[in-house]
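Why does residue order matter? Because the sequence determines the fold. Keep that principle in mind as you read this record.
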Amino acid sequence: MATRHLYLARHGAADAFGELTDVGRRQAELLGARLSALPVDAVWHSPLPRATASARVLGEHLPGVPVAEAAELVDHVPYVPAAPDLPPAWAGFFDGFDDAERAPGERLATALVDRFARTVDVETHEVLVTHAFQVAWLLRHALDAPPARWLGLNSGNAALTVIEYRDGLPPTVVLFNDMGHLPADLRWTGFPPSARP
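Structure:
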């Protein structure tokens, strides 16, 4: 039975303009070193500069592996819960979102799932360099959780999440937000300040 292995990674730390920082490049280098031990077939990345740059760094550790853009991985809000399903703490986050913004986000989220969250005919190992919301959306989908559950599934910069897809079986979540390849000073970037384990 063929397995589709998806290695989901949030891009490295970026500056206010969306460009990869020195910290973000180092995070991507360490993630690339970790992934270099795997039989990676392809690296797909968001079209945004921070993800594109992170994917290029990963590619330096994966000689001969194609690195290509996938529009479905772009940073966007995949789903805006209706008021009854919206946790109060998130209410302000969605201020100003209207139907004109919701519909394209939901279409992109559907396209993301349709392209990547499915089985394939041959064994594949694919790296997706994307954004926190897209990692959360794919994880929520793998867990068959309600659409609003993507909220609060946070990923650190260059953290690794692994999901496997096999015919006839529900998706398997192997890892979520694993930062074992990063030293302590490079972990937890992209999160608000708080106590960390």
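DSSP finds four helices and six strands in the chain.
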